[in-house]
Amino acid sequence: MAQAIASGILTGGLYGIIAIGITLNWGMMRVINLAHFSFSFLAAYFTYQITVDTGIDPFLTLFVTIPLFFIFGVALQWFFETFEIEDFMSLLVTFGMFLIFESIMRERWTADFRTLSSTEVAYKTEALRVLGLSLTVTRLAVFLVAIAISLGIWIFLNRTYAGKALRAISQDRAIASAYGVNHRQMALLLGGIAGASAAIAGAFIAVIFVLRPDGATDLIGFIFAVVILGGLGNTAGAFMAGIFIGVVQNVTGFTSLGPGFAPLITFLVLIFGLLLRPEGLFTGIDTWLAKMLSGRQT
Amino acid sequence: MRNGTLAAFITRNVSIRWYVPVAFVVLGVLLYFFPNDTVKDALGYRGFLLSFLYFSFYWIALASSWNMLTGYAGYFSFGHGAFYGIGAFTAAILITRSGWPYLLTLPIAGLAASLFGLFVGFVVFRMRQLRGELFGLLTLAVSFVVASIAANSDAIDGGQGQNVRPSQLATPEFLGSFSEMMFRVGVVVALATIFASYLIYRSRLGRGLFAIQDDEMVAEGLGVPTFRYKMMAFGLSTFFAGVVGGMHVPQIGFVTVESVFGLNVPLLVILMSLLGGRRHWMGPVIGAFVINTLDTALQRSGGLDAFGLALSGTFINELVIGLLLIVMILFVPGGLYERLERRIIPAFVVGALVAALQGIFVGGRITQQFMVIELFVIALLLIPEKYYAPIGGRFELHLGEKHTRNIPVETT
Lengths: 298, 412
Fold this sequence. Notes:
The complex is a heterodimer. Chain A is an all-alpha fold. The mean pLDDT of chain A is 84. Chain B is mainly α. The longest helix of chain B is centred in the first third of the chain and has 27 residues. The termini of chain B are close together. Chains A and B meet through helix 4, helix 9 and helix 11 of A and helix 7, helix 13 and helix 15 of B.
């Protein structure tokens, strides 16, 4: 049981990383970006391909994929800004993109399962033993990176000019522009950050999971559950909700119900969460973080 | 219902022209005799056309049923697959375990789906916050929940699937062979769904739903019983989804959780309605037919091998569908029907011209010919109004039921 909780926490980190990109765009720019899933998987395939071709460590490919997907993210955001795509329209437009990316991935990498074996990634199956629990190194890394990203973005949003400007835009675009916030520039920056986070998520997906072109479809449900439960635009909440969902899944698999019931329990949690607290279960984490870090206020 | 009689009730609440129900009946009768051997020989079509048309009817019915709530009231449901799947499993289980005849299971499948739909609606429609994206995600979650219950509970399926053999269907003799029977059932279900969708569109209910779409608060303030109307629309929408799910069981043959609860159904249905235009009952019909043609023609084609790129038919199919969705939403958010209504004569001329040219010079598969015709007509419809109006404006044809929807207003 403790093992199930521990690996749930670690897997939840990956959900958190993917959800952060979605929740940022949704909460700040009112864009529901399904293409983010495609970006994550595309980045995973890139990581896979570069690792297989050159034999370097998959995490070194981040030096290529992060800048690349930053640019992709900016380009996508530019597209949203130019055509003024928001809210429901964005869901449909990015769904079209999602289909296109999926077909591109299937065409290039076929529908076969791809995976980085331990010959390419020596530490793939290595595990640390802590207090009788076995923690896979890669999953531990996901967890730590997820903490770093969500904290980093939180500090960015709360302590830098660009971050404050973004929050101002999310509250009232017209007033924010009246105070001299360049909306377009900030939106592009946000898109780039979301794209870069997709690249990081992609590297972990490539190392931990088996790659399939339609793998992104399976994740949509879980990630949206994480985003909603975390509260829109709340990266720390997304991280917490990711862990929560990860634990729920793993513990369900551990009990007598079996892993088949994991989606059922997850989505029942989501449904009740939506019905009882539509603003998200983990919204309080934001204010708590602010209190904790208030000592370092400029 | 002060006058008491059914006729008075109908005239008070629905406004339709006499020729529309007549047209539906005539079309139904004509299509019913379409698979007959004499007609088949006279027209000289191949058996594949029947199966292609069956799939068109299937998608048309499914898209129309989805549109009853979403198109009219603006509540985007991503969970249509759940109701479709409930219908399919209800029918499959009744056939395999209880030995029911296929045709009798259809209404039961519809009722089962509708009951569940009303339950979901009863919970969800009371929450004012659950509009827009949240309603969409909630319905999506509902469909995941239903799928995993079906996959894990032995009373329903337990994940092993239901094998429905043609010999178990027990359909009456006069419906003909399997493909003819499916075609005829498809005709009836599709026409019934479209007609229901048309009735809603032309009724007080439809008017109320459009008011809800435009502004729910205002609608409620003006006395539209929003909760009741949404429940009615959702109940009807899920009923027809269930019937279509049940109808499709013999075609699937082996009904599994993955095959009926996948994301395929809700996504394609959304795409079809948006392509055709979801604010009119004809929209999903057009969209479903176009997408089904593209799907069939491109999947069956050998793909493209040019410019040093070898692209498979499936790839082109998905690419075209994805691009079409993006282009439609960005440039023609109202859907094809809106444009078609105003450009009906040029569209007809272009379609006939392309059809004739193809018949003379190209030939080939019928679905491919359909696809080329449709792509040309869509290209015509995609021309922006700015460039189209100076030339095409003079060919405008005013159809009878345009813009003026004279629906009786309650006088109390």
